[in-house]
């Protein structure tokens, strides 16, 4: 069970959350939600001592490997460096034996530090105090630090401590590594090399241990062991009552994909570099390294400073939790890498990126740190290679983005087989990689969104136009002519609602494809006027002169489903004719997906049941194409049929509820989004945190409660705080200027240090200001 009040350290109130009792049957939750990282690597927070059911994960971004031809590429689980075996008086220490008091495991979001402490009494009645600390440095992306303190409280103890580097781990059984050389230098520095089997990425992990007894450095003779895929040092101590043993373990992680290491593809030089980096870390020492890490995080919190005065302290904590995880999972250092749907916190979704990045997470970066948003979009630019290949393989033209992507040029990497079908007992086929195609226009949308909000023309010239033109070309080759109805259709797809497979004219997909085509046409005309040179360069590789008339013809005749007499837009051609099931029992579920214990996916396909926001997502993205009453009618129709079985669902519903001025509903749904990872469900995060939902939490606040939107290239604000909130304050970047917004129930204030005039639309009215704007909300 997690506690959100920092009882023991009040200065960490709204900055931390704590596990107050350890349950070895539910380790996954804390391992994920308390995971550490820095975008380069992610370390799951498994405990130092081993338990059955623990998942020890260390992922380095972008190091994908394919175990064999029957599997898809995934982020390999590198050697474990966190396990430490502690033998006390000859018996293995475990929280499953003896008695435990004063237990707490805390993730301190402010300093990105994991701590654990408790007093353990063994079967013989001897009490020992344990304290653990851990960080993954935000200052040196390759560094992990671990600290352990042990103090016998009643009598002396004999302690044997064994720690090292253990490559006997796998990804749920798939072993991604060839064994490499293991070497111990100077009886002190451990180094283990492992190389991925197919992608041939070298990993070099180097580690050292240092000890102090009551603050005096101790240099015990280690027992050194090298086994298959494992190396370990064992140290023995006799501790007197009241004496404290302190161990520091420092680890350096490098791979041949490192862009910041000179000649990283040369294994010898990578090994040397890793060892030297470790020795430098040793010179600085744990405490100094932690201080630098702390400073790096202080700068992050300074940049993303959020303040919420709410009756519920949890709200600000939830937002900080979301920002923390977005920071630890985003590869800010390398544009060849993306964000996994579970970040770097678990094996779920194999480290692959989905539309989660562009639609759910990217807005946070667009409005808070546009440089990072640009890096993430450049990853998609590099992905054009795989997208073009996918289009060709499927008989289309242009760029057809993969539903799931790993290394950018890999192309489609969605697995083909999934969970059990309760009717047939066979594995269900995953169709998304073949027919969930809206991702292509989602990416074009994201490029446009970034450009509108940042004004980054250089990005567009170098990357953006090409992405938009070639995705439009995909759609124009994808559309199918329906002679009977004289229109272009998109048949045989999956829309955002993955409980409806092989449908025709999913409204979201059709409208977004239309948007993509129109976007390309608009930019084509604009470039003709403004930058013909660039247009002719792009024309040479993309054949634009021939393409543009095709885009026009398709955009003019694509079928865009219209509302029926009740004002309902059909999610797809057959949705509204399907049987309706009372979802009340399933909606009350503690766990997602319980419907599939009673029905197979084929059966669900034939009912009006949605997994997640589908048409409602469309209303959010293309908001000014649909009137408010129509949105409300569709919300009321579809929400009762939506199970919210995807974590992407609550935030979209919350934002729409804000748009309908239903603050209470918006707030309730915001809380439900926040509770996906931080809520009471013990197993909801076992496979990793829900990255898109974290971006969604930020969007609930900024797009929902502050009502910030980019519409027609302008920044709109329409704030309406939830009942429980007195004040909301946050930074927002718009066209290169940083705006600091402070919203109270009665007043909105915006400050900027930018010299230029800021123009925006407040409650539908144009306003402009320089420096500062104050606006009374009381009469709105
Ligand atoms: C959702 C998708 C999402 C994926 C990764 C699925 O369950 O239906 O929309 O992209 O998870 O988060």
Automatic annotation (TrEMBL):
Keywords recorded for this protein, A-Z: Glycosyltransferase, Hydrolase, Transferase
SUPFAM superfamilies, per the entry: Galactose mutarotase-like, Six-hairpin glycosidases
Pfam families in alphabetical order: Glyco_hydro_65C, Glyco_hydro_65m, Glyco_hydro_65N
Domain Glycoside hydrolase family 65 N-terminal residues, every copy: 18-257
Sequence ranges assigned to domain Glycoside hydrolase family 65 central catalytic in this UniProt record: 320-699
Boundaries of every Glycoside hydrolase family 65 C-terminal domain copy: 709-767
A GO molecular-function annotation: hydrolase activity
Similarity remark: Belongs to the glycosyl hydrolase 65 family.
Protein name: Glycosyl hydrolase family 65 protein
Native source organism of the sequence: Paenibacillus chibensis
């Amino acid at each position: 069970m997690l506690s959100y009040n920092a009882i023991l350290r009040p200065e960490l109130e709204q900055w931390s959350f704590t596990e107050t009792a350890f349950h070895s049957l539910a380790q996954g939750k804390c391992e994920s939600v308390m995971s550490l990282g820095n975008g380069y690597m992610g370390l799951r927070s498994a405990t130092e001592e081993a338990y059955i059911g623990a998942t020890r994960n260390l992922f380095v971004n972008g190091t994908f490997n394919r175990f064999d031809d029957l599997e898809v590429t995934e982020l390999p689980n590198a050697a474990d460096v966190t396990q430490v075996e502690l033998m006390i008086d000859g018996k293995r220490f475990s929280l499953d034996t003896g008695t435990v008091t004063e237990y707490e495991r805390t993730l301190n979001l402010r300093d990105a530090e994991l701590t654990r402490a408790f007093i353990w009494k063994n079967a013989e009645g001897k009490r020992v105090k344990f304290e653990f600390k851990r960080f993954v440095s935000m200052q040196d992306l390759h560094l992990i630090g671990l600290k352990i303190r042990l103090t016998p409280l009643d009598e002396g103890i004999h302690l044997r401590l064994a720690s090292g580097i253990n490559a006997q781990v796998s990804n749920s059984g798939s072993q991604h590594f060839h064994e490499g050389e293991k070497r111990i230098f100077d009886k002190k520095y451990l180094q283990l090399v492992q190389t991925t089997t197919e992608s041939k990425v070298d990993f070099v992990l180097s580690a050292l241990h240092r000890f102090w007894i009551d603050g005096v450095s101790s240099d015990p003779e280690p027992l050194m062991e090298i086994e298959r895929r494992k190396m370990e040092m064992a140290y023995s101590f006799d501790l007197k009552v009241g004496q404290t043993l302190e161990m520091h373990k420092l680890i350096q992680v490098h791979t041949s994909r490192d862009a910041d290491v000179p000649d990283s593809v040369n294994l010898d030089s990578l090994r040397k570099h890793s060892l030297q980096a470790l020795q430098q870390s040793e010179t600085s020492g744990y405490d100094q390294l932690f201080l630098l890490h702390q400073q790096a995080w202080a700068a992050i919190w300074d940049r993303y400073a959020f303040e919420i005065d709410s009756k519920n302290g949890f709200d600000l904590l939830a937002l900080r939790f979301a920002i923390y995880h977005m920071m630890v999972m985003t590869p800010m250092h390398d544009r060849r890498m993306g964000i996994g749907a579970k970040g770097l916190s678990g094996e779920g979704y194999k480290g692959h990126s989905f539309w989660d990045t562009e639609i759910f997470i990217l807005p946070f970066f667009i409005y808070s740190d546009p440089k990072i948003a640009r890096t993430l979009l450049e990853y998609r630019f590099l992905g054009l290679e795989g997208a073009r290949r996918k289009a060709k393989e499927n008989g289309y033209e242009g760029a057809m983005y993969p539903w799931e992507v790993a290394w950018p040029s890999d192309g489609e990497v969605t697995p083909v087989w999934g969970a059990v079908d309760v009717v047939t007992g066979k594995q269900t086929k995953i169709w998304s990689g073949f027919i969930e195609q809206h991702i292509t226009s989602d990416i074009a949308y994201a490029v446009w969104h970034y450009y509108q909000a940042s004004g980054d023309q250089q990005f567009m010239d170098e990357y953006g136009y090409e992405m938009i033109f070639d995705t439009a070309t995909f759609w124009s080759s994808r559309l199918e002519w329906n002679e009977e109805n004289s229109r272009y259709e998109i048949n045989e797809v999956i829309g955002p609602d993955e409980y409806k497979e092989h449908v025709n004219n999913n409204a979201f997909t059709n409208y977004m494809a239309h948007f993509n085509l129109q976007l390309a046409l608009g930019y084509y005309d604009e470039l003709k006027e403004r930058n013909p040179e660039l247009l002719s360069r792009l024309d040479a590789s993309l054949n634009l002169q021939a393409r543009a008339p095709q885009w026009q013809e398709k955009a003019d005749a694509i079928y865009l489903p219209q509302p029926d007499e009740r004002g309902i837009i059909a999610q797809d051609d057959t949705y509204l004719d399907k049987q309706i099931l009372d979802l009340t029992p399933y909606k009350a579920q503690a766990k997602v997906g319980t419907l599939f214990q009673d029905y197979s996916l084929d059966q669900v396909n034939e009912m009006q049941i949605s997994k997640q926001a589908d048409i409602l997502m469309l209303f959010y993205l293309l908001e000014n194409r649909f009137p408010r009453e129509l949105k409300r009618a569709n919300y009321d129709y579809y929400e009762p049929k939506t199970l919210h079985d995807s974590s992407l669902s609550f935030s979209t519903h919350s934002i729409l509820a804000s748009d309908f001025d239903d603050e209470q509903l918006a707030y309730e749904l915001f809380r439900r989004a926040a509770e996906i990872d931080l809520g009471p469900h013990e197993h909801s995060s076992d496979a990793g945190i829900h990255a898109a939902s974290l971006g969604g939490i930020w969007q609930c606040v900024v797009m929902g409660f502050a009502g910030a939107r980019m519409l027609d290239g302008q920044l709109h604000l329409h704030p309406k705080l939830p009942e429980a909130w007195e004040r909301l304050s946050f930074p927002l970047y718009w066209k290169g200027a940083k705006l600091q917004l402070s919203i109270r129930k009665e007043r909105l204030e915006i400050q900027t240090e930018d010299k230029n005039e800021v123009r925006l639309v407040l409650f539908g009215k144009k306003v402009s200001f320089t420096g500062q704007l104050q606006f009374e909300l009381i009469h709105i």
